[in-house]
Amino acid sequence: MTTGPIEGSSKRYEPVPGAEHLRYPVRRIHLSNDEHFDVYDTSGPYTDTEAKIDVTSGLAPLRDDWDRPAPVAGAATQLAWAREGITTDEMAYVAAREGFDPEFVRAEVAAGRAVIPANHRHPESEPMIIGRAFAVKINANIGNSAVSSSIDEEVEKMVWAARWGADTLMDLSTGRHIHKTREWILRNSPIPVGTVPIYQALEKVNGDPAKLTWEIFRDTVIEQAEQGVDYMTVHAGVLLRYVPLTARRVTGIVSRGGSIMAAWCLAHHQESFLYTRFEELCEIFRRYDITFSLGDGLRPGSIADANDDAQFAELRTLGELTAVAKSHGVQVMIEGPGHVPMHKIEENVRLEEELCEGAPFYTLGPLATDIAPAYDHITSAIGAAMIARAGTAMLCYVTPKEHLGLPNRDDVKVGVITYKIAAHAADLAKEHPRAQERDDALSRARFEFRWNDQFALSLDPDTAREYHDETLPAEPAKTAHFCSMCGPKFCSMRISADVREYAARNGLDSVEAIEAGMAEKSAEFAATGNKVYLPVRAV
Amino acid sequence: MTTGPIEGSSKRYEPVPGAEHLRYPVRRIHLSNDEHFDVYDTSGPYTDTEAKIDVTSGLAPLRDDWDRPAPVAGAATQLAWAREGITTDEMAYVAAREGFDPEFVRAEVAAGRAVIPANHRHPESEPMIIGRAFAVKINANIGNSAVSSSIDEEVEKMVWAARWGADTLMDLSTGRHIHKTREWILRNSPIPVGTVPIYQALEKVNGDPAKLTWEIFRDTVIEQAEQGVDYMTVHAGVLLRYVPLTARRVTGIVSRGGSIMAAWCLAHHQESFLYTRFEELCEIFRRYDITFSLGDGLRPGSIADANDDAQFAELRTLGELTAVAKSHGVQVMIEGPGHVPMHKIEENVRLEEELCEGAPFYTLGPLATDIAPAYDHITSAIGAAMIARAGTAMLCYVTPKEHLGLPNRDDVKVGVITYKIAAHAADLAKEHPRAQERDDALSRARFEFRWNDQFALSLDPDTAREYHDETLPAEPAKTAHFCSMCGPKFCSMRISADVREYAARNGLDSVEAIEAGMAEKSAEFAATGNKVYLPVRAV
C-alpha cells in the first residue's frame, strides 16, 4: 500500500467554517521562499504521516458522528434536505473544500445541478461535490476481469488513483470475488465509489442476459447499497425501439451494460425492468442516498457514430428518468460519450442540460479521434477538456491501455494525471475563481529558477524531477539560473529577468515611459546588463 | 539509422496526375481482408526497402530535374509563380499528396494563404504545403545545445521524427558544430528544414546580443540559405517600445530569439536591424525561395501572460512585415503561442488572420495550463487541437521534456505521435474530405476484431501491439472475438454484432420496422442469439 506525503508537501486538516467540529483535508506544498501553496486533496489518510493505515480494518468511519437530518417524505438524501433548506455537514464540508459559500452549495444541490454522492453506509468517504459550478472532477475506473488481477492490486489501484487526484472511483470488476473485492475497496476508500450493478447481476444468471429479472437485479442493488456504494450506473434508457437504431452503426453498441439490456429487450420483446421498475429503484436509492449515474448504453463507440439517433433518443429518455428520480428525492447525474469529433462536442452538453434539467454530466473522454490506440488517454483528454469547458461536471478517465488491455498501476497514474490536466484546463477556461493561482505560482517558480518549487507545484513532482535529472542530475542544477534547453550561458529567462529589473528600476514599464526615458538609460543598461552575466549570453 | 517499413505497411510511389514524370510517396497499409488503406507519407526513402541509404552521401536530389520557371521580377518563388498563374511541379506534387486540384493549390499559394517551403538548394526534400485549407501539419524541433547530444543523434532524430509523421523539422542547434550538424541534416532530410539564424549569428559574437550587427546576421542567413534551409524564423517584430510591455509579466520574455533582440534594442536604443533591414532580407530570401517564419519573440510563456499587450503589439507588426515580404514575392508564415488558456485560443487565430492577410499560422502548442511539467505534450495537445481547429495550419510539437530537459529519441516519437493526434482531431473537426476515412477503417477493424488491422491502421502500430500483448500475448488472441477488457465470454462488441446480424436479417433497422416486425421475431432471436454464443455472455 502506497503511503506518505507527495514530494514537497504535507497533509493538513482545516476546520470547516460554520461547522468547526468538521475538518477537511488540504495538501500544503512548501516552497523554498518560505511561502506555501495549499491544494485540494483527494488522497485520504494515506498521505497523512500521523495516520495508522490497516487495510484489514479499513479507514476510520469519518461521517459516523456527523449530523444526519430526518428523512423528508421518506428521502434521506442531500437533494431532499437541500430542498428543505437544510445545509448538511456534507454541504458545509464540500463548500469549505472548494471555497464556496455553503448556501450556494445547498442551492445547487437543491436545483439538481450538483450532486454529493455519499451513501450513508460509506462513512469512510470524504464528501465531494459534482456540478458545473464547481471544480471539474475526474473518475478512475478499476476492476478485475475474467482475464486478470487480484483484490490487493485493485485496492492499491484505488489508493494510488486517489493519491494522484481521482475524485471518485468506479469498481467495474466482472470476474470472481466481485463482492469481496468491492468490500475491501469501500472500507478503504476515502473517495466515493460507483458500480454498475448489472455486471454482478449477470454473474448470478451465469452470464445470460435473457435470464436477468427485476428481482435478481433488485437484490444485487440492495447488496451493493448495504456495502456502501455511493453511485450506481443504471442503463434504464435503453428502450426496445432504440436498439435497431444501432444496427447500421460502424461500432454498434459498445457499452457493456447497454449491450446486456439490448439483448434482454430483443429476447423478451419488452422494455427492460430497469425502465418499467425505475420508481421502485428510486425507493431503494433514496433510503441510502445513492446517486443515479444514468448510463448511456447506446453511446457512440467511434467518430462515425457520434451524435446519432440512437444516442440522442436514449438521452431524451434519460431526461424523463431524471425528473422521476428527482421527484423521489434521489440525486442524479447523466453519463455521456465516448467518441466524438471536436465539432460535435458542444451539442452533447447543450442537449444534456436542456433534456436533463442541468443534472451533472459525466462523460467518458470523449475521444476526439479513433486512430491512436495506445494513446487514447491523449485523444480523449482533448475531448475531455473541451466537453468540461462546455459544462461537463465530471470526466471519467481513459488510460493508455483503452481498447487494448487492462490498466496496470502505471497506466492508472498516467490516466489520472492526464485527466487532472483536462479538468484543470477546463477550470481555467471557465474562470473558476481559484484555478489560475496554481499556474501562476508554478510559472513564477519557473521564471525564478526555483526548480524544486516548480516540481513540487506540478501535478507529478516525481516525474518532473526525474526528467530534469536526466540532463542535469546534480543538486546545484536545481538552483542554477539556467536549464538544459539553453545551457549555462544561453538563457532567455535570465535576459528577460534583466529586462524586468532594468525597466522596473527606471520606471520603464509603459510605452510612454520608455519613449521618454530610454535614451539616457540605454547606455546604463549595457553596463548593468553586462554585470549580470559576463558575457551576457542570452538566446 | 532507422530504416524499413512501418509494421503492416509498404512504401509506394504514385504518379502525379498531370505531371506523370513526378511520383509522390504513399504508405500502403495492408489489411487482413485483402483490402488496403493508403496514408500520407512523410518518412522519405528510409521506409523504402528498395532504397539504398548512405548518410555520408545523402539522399538523391529529387527536385534537381524538376521544371523551374524563370524568376518573376527577381523572385524565383512559389508565391511569385503562383501569382503569375504558373502551376509548378511542386504545386502539382503537393496537390496529388493531399488530394486537391493543382489549380486550387496555386490559388491558395498566390493568395498567401498557403506556403510551400522549398529552398532551391534543398532538392532532397519532398514538397509539402502548409495552409488552413489543407491537412494540418506538424513540426518537430531538434538540435543539440551546449549541454548535450551529437551530430549522429540529431540526424537519427530527424529520420525518426519523419518516420512517425513530422511534416517539417527545425534544427535549433546552439552548441558547437552548428554548420556541420545542419549540413548533415539537410542532405539527409526528405522534409523541409527550418532554422533560427540569430542563434548562429550570436555564436559569432561570442554570445553578446549587443555585439550583433546586420552584416553578421546577413552573412549567417546567406550561409544557411546556400545550405538549403527551407524556412527561417526571424524575430523582426520585436520593437524597442514593446520590450517594456513585458516587464510586468509573470514570465517575461521566453523566446530565445525574442530575448536576444530585446537585449539588442535596449542596449542600442534603436529598432533592430531585423526590422530596419527587413527589405534587404526579403531580397535574399526570394533568390532561394526561403519562407519567412515571422517569430513571435514576445509570445506568452505562461497562462497569466496570454493575449497581452506585448504579444498582440508584436502581432500587428508581423502583419505589416507580412505585406512587405509578399510585395517582394517572398512566402510567409506567422509563429504563434505558447501558453494560452482554452477560452483565449480562438482570438489568437482571429487576430492573426485579420492582421496577417490569412498567412499560415504556425503555433507552439499552445499549452492549456502551466501545472504539468513532464506532461506538456498533453497540456499542449489540448491547445494545439483547438487552435488547429480554429485555422492554424501547422503545429510545432512539444515533447514530455519541455521545460525540463532535452528530448531523447523516445521523447521525439511521443511528441510526434501526440501532435499527429492533435492535427488529425482538427482535420476531423474541419471536416477535411479525407480525414474520417482512417477513423472509420480502424473502427471497423476494431468492431470486427481484426486486431492486426487495428494495430496497422493506428498511428503507432508497435506500441498498440505491445500493449495488447501485455495482457493477451498469444497470436490467436489477435484474431479472437474478444479482448482483455471483458474476457472470452463477456463482450459488448460481440453482442452488438449479434444485434446487427439479427436486425439486418429481419429488416429491423428503423423504429417503424421494429415496432411492426419485432413481436414474432423476438423468439427467433433468443434462438439464433444463443447459437452465436452458448451461453451468450455479453457485458
Automatic annotation (TrEMBL), chains A, B:
Official protein name in the record: Phosphomethylpyrimidine synthase
Co-factor binding comment: Binds 1 [4Fe-4S] cluster per subunit. The cluster is coordinated with 3 cysteines and an exchangeable S-adenosyl-L-methionine.
Required cofactor names: [4Fe-4S] cluster
Keywords, in A-Z order: 4Fe-4S, Iron, Iron-sulfur, Lyase, Metal-binding, S-adenosyl-L-methionine, Thiamine biosynthesis, Zinc
GO BP terms in the entry: thiamine biosynthetic process; thiamine diphosphate biosynthetic process
Reactions performed catalytically: 5-amino-1-(5-phospho-beta-D-ribosyl)imidazole + S-adenosyl-L-methionine = 4-amino-2-methyl-5-(phosphooxymethyl)pyrimidine + CO + 5'-deoxyadenosine + formate + L-methionine + 3 H(+)
Transmembrane segments: none
An example Gene Ontology molecular-function term: phosphomethylpyrimidine synthase activity
Pathway annotation: Cofactor biosynthesis; thiamine diphosphate biosynthesis
GO cellular component: cytosol
Domain of life assignment: Bacteria
Family: Belongs to the ThiC family.
Broad enzyme group: lyase
ThiC-associated domain span: 6-66
EC number: 4.1.99.17
Function: Catalyzes the synthesis of the hydroxymethylpyrimidine phosphate (HMP-P) moiety of thiamine from aminoimidazole ribotide (AIR) in a radical S-adenosyl-L-methionine (SAM)-dependent reaction.
Amino acids binding Zn(2+): H339, H403
Positions of [4Fe-4S] cluster binding: C483, C486, C491
Organism in which the protein naturally occurs: Zhihengliuella flava
Span of the signal peptide: none
Residues that coordinate or bind substrate: N141, M170, Y199, H235, S255, R256, G257, D296, G297, L298, R299, E335, Y362
